[in-house]
């Protein structure tokens, strides 16, 4: 599968630098967050400290975009101030995500939601895919990445082997030529390093490890005192190449928290699944059951409670929804596997079976009596295709047909 998770960490760099820049600008002579700037005679010291700790935990969508507005990198990040941890979930650009009205093979990839429906389309797609709320977004392009690295004087990493690759069809053309050994990479060489994906014994896993090494080296570099004089230049660079709907006050509060309590750990994951061809098109098919587990771990505010779990009241309501689950992928045990998921959420699964004579690439949910009931089932199984098939003689409320995307 081509170009999965290209430059996974490169937009993390953008937000890390924006935090540093915001801190320099807003807190050069101020020692309390902007949201807490009140008359100190009326605010107690303890009250002020409590407000400083009440920073909101947000899910931020990061997009790495080329000059043609194609999203080569997509991931969701949040900062957990209670545990001083940064959580990152990367989403392969080829992730299979069919949208109503978009039927061409390439239009069924999640990165097409960005190129065709801009950031709001991608935001909606990621929210549906992960069943979480996206609070804000950040977009950074290649030129911005390179200029950021050049501004801080490069980043020192250990290139594990000679890296040489040319792709004249890429736009812009991709030329990689790096020699093995520890060295300081400028912006141009840095982007070659994080984009290189050939030659690793572990495939993409090896590349991701190399990118993590680059990120750690970058964070070490920007924590040096010598970077402070360069922050004004970074501010100019970011203003030219970084697009975000985060407000100045948002950035300020997170900047203060980041500097005051620097993250002690980063939990970076890849959306679980596998890449394979359907016809002549390569897709990344998500393992939806594992996604629920990872989303719970990374984005749930209470690790003891699954983010997709329902309340007891909702479970009681689900018992009134009759569902049939049909295996349309020809994969043994698939219908039983997902029927158990629905049963655990309280749905009344009255039939488990197979679709005869036809194979489905994508999964579908059909509303036989009520569309809202079908949407509940679809949300539980992370299925985006919901269609009406209302029938007065229906024996079930919802029919689920599982496709190969649920493998």
Describe the structure.
With 407 residues, this protein is of the alpha/beta class. The chain has helices at residues 10-26, 45-53, 111-130, 142-151, 187-195, 204-222, 231-241, 248-260, 288-299, 312-318, 334-344, 371-381, and strands at 60-65, 71-80, 85-91, 136-141, 155-159, 163-167, 174-178, 181-185, 242-244, 265-270, 273-278, 281-286, 322-327, 348-354, 364-367, 386-388, 398-402. The strands form 5 sheets. It has a 6-stranded mixed beta sheet, sandwiched between helices.
The CATH topology of the largest domain comes to Aminopeptidase
**Individual helix count:** 12
Report strand order across the widest sheet.
9-4-1-2-3-10
What's the rounded overall pLDDT mean?
79
The unreliable regions are 1-15, 21-53, 303-311
Into how many domains do the coordinates divide? 2
Query: Helicity level, as a percent range?
Result: 25-40%
For the largest beta-sheet, the strand count, sense and barrel status come to:
6 strands, mixed
CATH architecture of the largest domain: 3-Layer(aba) Sandwich
Helix-strand topology string: HHEEEHEHEEEEHHHEHEEEHHEHEEHEE
Task: Assign an overall shape.
Answer: globular
Number of strands: 17
| β-strand amount | 15-25%
Determine and state the CATH class of the largest domain.
Alpha Beta
Give the structure's gist in a few sentences.
With 407 residues, the protein is α/β, with parallel strands linked by helices.
């Amino acid at each position: 599968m081509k170009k999965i998770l290209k430059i996974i960490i490169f937009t993390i760099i953008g937000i890390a630098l924006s935090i540093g820049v915001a801190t320099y600008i807003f807190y050069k002579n101020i020692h309390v967050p902007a949201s807490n700037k009140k008359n100190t005679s009326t605010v107690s010291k303890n009250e002020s400290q409590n407000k400083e700790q009440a920073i909101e935990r947000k899910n931020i969508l990061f997009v790495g975009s080329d000059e043609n507005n194609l999203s080569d990198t997509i991931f969701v990040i949040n900062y957990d101030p209670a545990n001083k941890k940064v959580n990152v979930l990367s989403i392969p650009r080829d992730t299979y995500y069919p949208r109503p009205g978009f039927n061409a093979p390439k239009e069924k990839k999640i990165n097409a939601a960005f190129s065709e429906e801009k950031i709001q389309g991608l935001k909606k797609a990621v929210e549906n895919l992960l069943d979480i709320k996206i609070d804000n977004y950040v977009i950074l392009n290649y030129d911005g990445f390179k200029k950021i690295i050049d501004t801080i004087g490069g980043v020192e990493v250990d290139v594990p082997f000679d890296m040489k690759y040319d792709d004249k069809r890429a736009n812009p053309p991709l030329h990689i030529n790096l020699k093995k050994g520890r060295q300081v990479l400028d912006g141009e060489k840095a982007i070659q390093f994080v984009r290189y994906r050939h030659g690793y014994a572990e495939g993409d896993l090896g590349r991701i490890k190399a990118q993590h090494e680059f990120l750690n080296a970058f964070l070490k570099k920007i924590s040096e005192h010598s970077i402070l004089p360069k922050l004004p230049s970074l501010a100019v660079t970011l203003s030219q190449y970084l697009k975000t709907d985060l407000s100045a006050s948002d950035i300020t509060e997170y900047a203060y928290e980041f500097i005051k309590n620097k993250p002690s750990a980063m939990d970076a994951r890849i959306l679980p699944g596998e890449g394979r061809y359907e016809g002549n098109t390569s897709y990344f098919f998500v393992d939806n059951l594992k996604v629920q587990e990872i989303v719970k771990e990374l984005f749930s505010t209470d690790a003891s409670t699954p983010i997709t779990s329902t309340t007891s009241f909702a479970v009681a309501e689900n018992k009134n929804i009759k569902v049939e689950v049909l295996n349309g992928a020809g994969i043994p045990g698939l219908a039983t596997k997902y029927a158990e998921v629905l049963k655990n959420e309280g749905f009344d699964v009255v039939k488990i079976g197979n679709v005869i004579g036809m194979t489905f690439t994508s999964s579908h949910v059909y509303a036989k009596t009520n569309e809202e009931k079908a949407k509940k089932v679809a949300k539980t199984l992370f299925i985006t295709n919901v269609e009406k098939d209302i029938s007065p003689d229906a024996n079930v409320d919802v029919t689920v047909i599982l496709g190969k995307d649920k493998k």
